[in-house]
Amino acid sequence: MKKTGIAIAIMGLGFGLMSGGVSAADMVVKLGHVGPLTGSISHLGKDNENGALLAIEEYNAKGVTIGGKKIKFEIMGEDDQADPRAGTTVAQRLVDAEVVGVVGHLNSGTTIPASRIYHQAGIPMISPSATNPKLTQQNYAGVFRTIANDVQQGGAIGKFATGALGAKNIAIIDDRTAYGQGLADEVEKSAKATGGKIVAREFTNDKATDFMAILTKIKAQNPDVIFFGGMDAQGGPMLRQLKQLGINAKFITGDGACSGEMLKLAGDALSGNAYCTQAGLPLDKMPGGKDFKERYKKRFNLDVQIYAPYAYDAAAAMIEAMKVADSTVPAKYLSALKAINFQGVTGNVAFDAKGDIKEGAITVYQYKDGGWNPVP
Fold first, then answer.
1. CATH number, domain 5-148+286-349, options 3.30.830.10, 3.40.50.300, 3.40.50.2300, 3.30.1360.40
2. Domain Leucine-binding protein: where (predicted)?
3. pTM of this prediction?
4. Which helix (H) or strand (E) holds 110?
5. How far apart are CA 19 and CA 30, in angstroms?
């Protein structure tokens, strides 16, 4: 997607003395998280926040020294409601607070406009979940992401639909967000290039729950596969309505709906005809995935939704760059961030010249045995 921000600010000695557990010799580095913490996809925003929080807690436990000072990382949460206007408002608030780094946002639609504000302020940012390719096509030197983009994901979905699923006629629906529409555009390109015919291209919005009119139009076209570009809050109800209308086409969606919450929302409408993709390896196949899953569950008493490992690696990448540069000043640690290369939870974390993750994998999942299972 995809789709939240970690802002980093250096606080003075006075704050350190008030924060509790911080000695006079410590330097407090403030990490603020911004994402949809209310609304229909708040579970994904909280998932990102938890991933980032776990990273800074573990770095604090190990101890980090930068510039001869022991560092105390702290996190502050902000809610952007998955709204571009709220996202830019929060971004400016962080700039005004003199933050020195940002990880996020969650959604492409909030990350892209916010990235301009951070760029103008000279503040590096890393997104763990914004997948629209436009994010890193802006030629902003300090913009990065730890997840594969929609060119890779959309291409994989289109090829899977026409190849493994044998689709000739494909219907596409998107939610008209930067993420949903962008991914749908890439799926359409890939499907056409591999022999598929697009028999319908419809759109809704990211607040809708009634899709009966759209699906009735699509039913008349008798598609083999229906692709939905959007989030689980719409994907779940859409699957239920597909079942109500007796539409038997295979259903595939992207990472925004490839979640545990999607399983709850779709309920008994799910079958072996439902597929989704995630930009990355399955959690249990990530180099640090199994251990991360256990640590996350122990700390929050929750299961990972989707992006928490990428948020963890995004926070870790920024902290590792500061360690290499021995500085928290953006102008000093940015070059180290561009050249960073370490083994994270999700795999090798290193960025190309545009700021995209170098080794961005895509995994296709099928609904089976009550959950999402990787397709061999």
1. 3.40.50.2300
2. 29-370
3. 0.79
4. helix 108-120
5. 11
CATH no., domain 151-278: 3.40.50.2300
Q: Tokens 């090829």 identify what position?
A: 159
Domain with CATH 3.40.50.2300 in the chain: 5-148+286-349, 151-278
Closest CA to 324 of 332, 308, 336, 334: 336
CA proximity to 229, closest of 249, 196, 204: 204
How many CA atoms lie within 13 Å of 126's alpha carbon, on the beta-carbon side?
31
Ordered DSSP codes for 175-189? -SSHHHHHHHHHHHH
Tokens of residue 198, six digits: 């697009």
Pairwise CA distance, residues 222 & 127, whole Å: 38
pLDDT digit string (tens) for 296-344? 999 999 999 889 999 999 999 999 999 999 999 889 999 999 999 999 9
Residue with token string 């103008």: 120
User: 79, 37 in Cβ contact below 8 A?
Assistant: yes
